[in-house]
Amino acid sequence: MPEMRFSESVSARLDDGVLVVAIDNPPVNALSAHVRSGLIAALDHATVAAEIAGLVISGAGRTFIGGADIKEFGQPMVEPTLPQVIDRIESFEKPIICAVNGAALGGGCEVALACHGRIAGETASFGLPEVKLGIVPGAGGTQRLPRLIGPIAAIDLIGTGRAVKAGEAVALGLVDVAAADPLAAAIAAVRENARRPLRRTGSIEMPAADAAAVSAAEAKVLARSRGQLAPAEAVRLVKSANQLDLEQGLAEERATFLRLRDSEESAALRHVFLAERAAGKVEKLAGVSPRRIESVGIVGTGLMGSGIAVSALTSGYRVIALEQTQEAATAGRGRIAGILDKAVQSRRLTTEAREACLARLDTTAEAKNLAAADLVVEAVFDDISVKTELFRRLDGIVAPGAILATNTSYLDPDAIAAATADPSRVVGLHFFSPANVMRLVEVVDCAKTAPDVLASALAFVKRLGKLPIVCGVTEGFVGNRIFSAYRREAEFMLQDGALPHEIDAALEAYGFPMGIFAVNDMAGLEIAWARRKRLAATRDPAERYVEIADRLCEAGRLGRKTGHGWYAYPDGERTIDPAVTAAIEAARAAKNIEPRTFTAEEIIDRLLKAMVDEGAALLAEGIAARPGDIDLVMINGYGFPAHKGGPMFAAEHNR
Ligand code: 3H9
Which of 587-591, 646-650, 651-655 has the lowest mean pLDDT? Predict the structure, then answer.
């Protein structure tokens, strides 16, 4: 049977009376205008062709449909709109079954929900991730999903944007059945459905749900949403599906979708989405093949090393973890197993996967065992002589093509590389703590790093499921350099009249999970103190310097772990400490500074400006490649609220 073409991206073949429609719009089969018009043309054809009993909708490649085309957002709307296409599918007189071979997300999930039956292949997943883009589903998702799976599960899925795999989708009632060959099963289902009344999702009565359980599901979503609009709106719409008829519910949903689509929050989150896709792309690496990495050596199994080890193990690598003594190696193995156990307890890992991870782990005190590693990451004490000595030793042990990575946060990786005979194989991999949880990794392109070494480091970080940001060598790399500038500005404001809790409150109201002084207390004040002492000799005496943090450290107030820092922590509770206020007042008096008050807006403006100025300097120096990379570093490493888009985006949009 010849192929029928309905648009540049929609074609079909006839399989014994079933029109099997394929959407082929790489890379993710997004619902661009030509996909929507192609689907309508296919339906028009099926309406008039008497020999067609019904349709199957499928996606070409690895994805079913990745959603509405987010690159069309912000452009004038082109008909047919997605709600028009979806309405036509649901009300179609002949059966339409979808064969879902990969991700059915956003508008793609909404297409599936409107079909008269849904078959999931093994790699299928379903989700309405719109809230992650600052919007709500705009083509029926909030009204149809609760009719299929009930309001409680719908609030969870739509409110968090979480996707479910085939098994969970079947258990929830989102799909009818999982099948090894979803296309064949969908064709058979069309023939079956042609003989009976069609099940139209919009006409299904909403399953009853316990009001208290609905409220609990709602509270859970709202607790996570920290100042964002979309999750609360999504929950409201799902709940309204119970009170409004389908038409009213869809109209309310559409109006909300259009309003949020034009919001700053959505623009910011779309910027973050696109920046993440751009981050892994490095122009100078085009055509460069990464080296093969299967075995990863990790030196040091403290908090950082064991976190990196867990990340590598759960991503399928073999890990050789080196410690100085056999006892330390055994303790390291215990720490790694402990993190894996926690993952099993919280159902992020199966017991079998845990066993497989431990079977791939070798903990040893024999440095020569690292000869089997393709990449060695050091996670030892951040001291230049410790690290250079280690690299000198590693150089004589590892295989000739093996890559050496340093996880230093403040030291100069070029100096560490210089200790080796072949600095071209040295790269920086700056993980954030805890490394098994935090997504961000700064991949440091050192002065002599070979392109294929950089490409390998990037590929490694991506296989860990993490977000690599490539940067050049500078003290503190991108994140800590901006963090230092921002902390300096916060301390200037302290000296000028603000108090730590006022600055923290402004940051938390802006969307940071924790203000900067509370963060410093949690991390401990001693590392920055040591750094300040190290830099004291070379500091320009004319430069403004605030001594308050030094006074706190000298008084033994090193943060939460000592019970005191910028705050006191009686019973673990963050509390304003009059002793800190007194220290701040004394510092002001010593410099004859008349304190003044700061509004929350002024505090945010000043901190944002400090971050942006430092970001601009990093771009000018070629340390960071794109403003979006800086935004991602601050969002994923330092708690900057994603729904503000990161400091560079926020400043450009005057927020
Ligand atoms: C929506 O549907 C609203 C509706 O409710 C209402 C409408 C009325 N559009 O992630 P990858 C691009 S909102 C356009 O690396 P993967 C992406 O930019 C939408 N382009 O691939 C990248 O381009 P480039 C709801 C898109 O295999 C390339 O595809 N949907 C879209 O790792 C590869 O992306 C979502 O939020 C899109 N929707 O993962 C789903 N999606 O090569 C968002 C991706 O130029 N997408 N691109 O850099 C995803 O989660 C993942 O991309 C997906 C594939 C899982 C699909």
Answer: 651-655
Side chain identity at residue 56, one-letter code: V
- The answer to whether residue 1 scores a pLDDT higher than 70 is no
**Cis omega (within 30 of 0) for bond into 80:** yes
The residue whose C-alpha atom lies closest to atom 40 belonging to ligand 1 is 66
CATH of domain 4-262: 3.90.226.10
Work out the average pLDDT over 555-568: 95
Residue 115 CB neighbour total at 10 angstroms: 28
Specify the domain boundaries for CATH 3.90.226.10 within the chain. 4-262
Instruction: For the chain, give every residue range classified as CATH 1.10.1040.50.
Output: 479-622
27 lines ligand 1 (CB under 6 A): yes
Amino acid at 424: S
- pLDDT averaged over every residue in the chain: 96
Q: How far apart are CA 307 and CA 437, in angstroms?
A: 8
pLDDT per residue over 406-448, tens digit each? 999 889 999 999 999 999 999 999 999 999 999 999 999 999 9
Question: Which letter does DSSP use for residue 292 in this model?
Answer: P
Q: Count Cβ atoms below 10 Å from residue 514 Cβ, excluding itself.
A: 15
- pLDDT beyond 80 at 655: no
Indicate the pTM of the whole model.
0.92
10-15 and 18-23 strand pairing: antiparallel
CB 130 within 8 A of CB 136: yes
Condensed to tens digits (0 to 9), the pLDDT of residues 302-332 reads 999 999 999 999 999 999 999 999 999 999 9
Q: Ligand 1 centroid to 268 CA: how many Å? A: 16
Please indicate whether residue 352 is annotated as part of the active site: no
Selecting among 90, 110, 218, 614, the annotated active-site residue is: 110
Residues 6 or more apart whose Cβ sits within 8 Å of residue 334: none
What percentage of residues in the chain have a pLDDT greater than 70? 100
Task: Say yes or no to pLDDT of 268 above 80.
Answer: yes
Fold (CATH) for 479-622: N-(1-d-carboxylethyl)-l-norvaline Dehydrogenase; domain 2 (1.10.1040)
Rounded distance from Cα 22 to ligand 1 centre (Å): 18
Per-residue pLDDT reduced to its tens digit, 434-444:
999 999 999 99
Residue 110 designated active-site: yes
Atom number of ligand 1 nearest to Cα 137: 5
Ligand 1 within 6 A of 113 CB?
A: no
- 67 alpha carbon to ligand 1 midpoint, in Å? 7
From residue 295, how far is each of 186, 299, 315, 369, 537 by CA, in Å?
A: 42, 13, 11, 11, 43
Of 284, 264, 266, 286, the residue nearest 274 (C-alpha): 266
Domain range 289-471, its CATH number among 3.30.450.40, 3.90.1150.10, 3.30.1330.10, 3.40.50.720: 3.40.50.720
Nearest-atom number in ligand 1 for the CA of 108 is 2
pLDDT at residue 225 in the model: 86
Residue limits of CATH 3.40.50.720 in the chain: 289-471
Give the closest residue to 382 by CA, choosing from 416, 348, 423, 338: 416
If pLDDT is split at 50, 70 and 90, which confidence band does 528 have? confident
What CA–CA distance (Å, rounded) separates 292 from 552? 49
Token digits for 3? 């192929």
151 by Cβ neighbours in 10 Å (0-12 / 13-18 / 19+) ranks as: buried
Give the residue-averaged pLDDT of 226-236.
Answer: 93
